[in-house]
Amino acid sequence: MSSLHPPSALAALAAVAAEAPRAALPATAHARRWGRLGAQLASVAACLLMWHLAVQLRLNLGLITFANVPSPAEVLEAAWALLHSPKLAGHLVSSLLRVGLGFGIAAVLGVVLGLAVGRWRWARNFLLPPLEVLRPIPAVAWIPLSILMFPSSEGSMVFITFVGALFPILLNTIHGVESVDARLVASARSLGTRGWRLFSEVIAPSAAPSIVTGLSIGMGTCWFCLVTAEMIAGQFGIGYYTWESYTVQNYAGIVVGMLLIGALGMGSSAIIRRAGERLMPWHRPQGAAQ
């Protein structure tokens, strides 16, 4: 009996059938990615539409009114003017330098203290009580004292950003160290891992996801505190621009400053999360959205 298909043809068909699911996977992931992007853009468009309608209708809800709120078109015009302003570079550089310095110092100190407090009882007993006393104090309350402590306003503003970022980083690092599986540590010790190797190869990698979360949160609070400090002591910066816009009744400029702060904060936090994902290839969040 003769075969309807030569063996070579059957093998080729089988190979194509085997590769078809693999080829479908990237296409499915691509479609899912575009679907997420479409949903995100739609949510932003819906917010802009509601904002536009509330301003146009001069919506008054009793506790809140949109009668004096600038429209999206006015904000876009103010943003365009700021984009072409020679002061924009000075505002951005000043804010980025203050955030970078304050966050950098807070990241190093917060991670080091968090690892020590989370791992050693003596560090917890000696260091944690004063830190817990200082933690509830809002960064705004530090502004008068920082002005007295630092001879320059720049130093006081960097200190305020440092205070705002320190405690989220510290607490998340402590939580990460305390969450390390004791069986993992015991297994490493049974294999002869001791001292610094145990710390660097077992404890720190296990606590890394919590540390990255703390860094991301700390970056957001850093921007929050910076704006408050710049409103009081700054001459350049996004916070200063926002406050200056209010004093000269440039209400659209206020919204531009707010949106710029939000964009910078979101972008810097996203960079930290992406860097964390690259540095932690072994970690995949449970229940992560697909």
Give a written overview of the molecule:
With 290 residues, this protein is mostly helical. It has two domains: 1-68; 72-279, MetI-like (MetI-like fold), CATH 1.10.3720. 79% of the residues lie in helices and 0% in strands. The chain is built from ten helices and no strands. It is globular. The chain starts with 6 loop residues before the first helix and ends in an 11-residue tail after the last helix.
List the helices and strands and how they pair.
Blueprint: H1 7-56, H2 72-83, H3 87-119, H4 121-134, H5 143-149, H6 153-178, H7 182-190, H8 195-233, H9 238-247, H10 251-279
Helix pairs in contact: 2-10, 3-4, 3-6, 3-8, 3-9, 5-6, 6-8, 8-9, 8-10, 9-10
Protein name: ABC transporter permease
Domain ABC transmembrane type-1: 92-272
Pfam families: BPD_transp_1 (PF00528)
List keywords for this structure.
290 residues, mainly alpha, MetI-like fold, 2 domains, cell membrane, transport, membrane, transmembrane helix, MetI-like_sf
